[in-house]
Amino acid sequence: AFSTPPPASDGSIEVFLQVGTGARRFEAIENGGDVGIVQGPQGGFHVWGGLRADGFDPGAQVRLDFELVQSGSVVARATYYDALERTEAEGPFEYAAVAVVIEKVEPRSVADLPATLRLSLTTEDGHVLEDEIEVIPRCCEL
Predict the structure, then answer these.
(1) Fewer Cβ neighbours under 10 Å: the N or C end of the chain?
(2) Secondary structure of the chain as H, E, C letters
């Protein structure tokens, strides 16, 4: 859903944002689906974030704010600034390989418990799209 409305559209393309996962390419997640907790090359742990979106002009760059929330607390986060690219000439925008880094908690303490993976996408002209999905982080891919 947009928290600020997009520019007027001719209605031919639905405005949407879908949060997901994916180390190399976007992967959709079923509500309540698993996301792996991965150990990165620097020793920290993260879950992969990704997205699929369309129906708006992102401009040259967007801001992506991912959060993994459990019991009302943010346990992992990531902020990226980057350009979105279409997967095909007429296809949606896709983006993947966002390391949503687990902060200040032991990775095993977030494993196997329900969490919400949230994404806020802000376009250059200030429009905001948001999406979230319930996930179960699974520990730990080394």
Answers:
(1) C
(2) CECCCCCCCCCCCCCEEEEEECCCCCECCCCCEEEEEEECCCCCEEEEEEEEEECCCCCCCEEEEEEEEECCEEEEEEEEEECCEECCCCCCEEEEEEEEEECCCCHHHHCCCCEEEEEEEEECCCCEEEEEEEEEEEEEEC
CA 80 to chain centroid, in Å, comes to 10
Task: Give tens-digit pLDDT for 47-60.
Answer: 999 999 998 887 78
Question: Whole-model pTM?
Answer: 0.88
C-alpha span between 103 and 105 (Å, rounded): 6
Tell me how far apart the alpha carbons of residues 74 and 125 are, in angstroms, rounded to a whole number.
27
pLDDT, tens digit, 9 for 90 and up, residues 110-121:
999 999 999 999
State how far Cα 1 lies from the chain centre.
14
- Confidence label for 87 from pLDDT (cuts 50, 70 and 90): confident
The CA distance from 64 to 48, in Å, is 13
| d(C-alpha 59, C-alpha 139), whole Å | 37
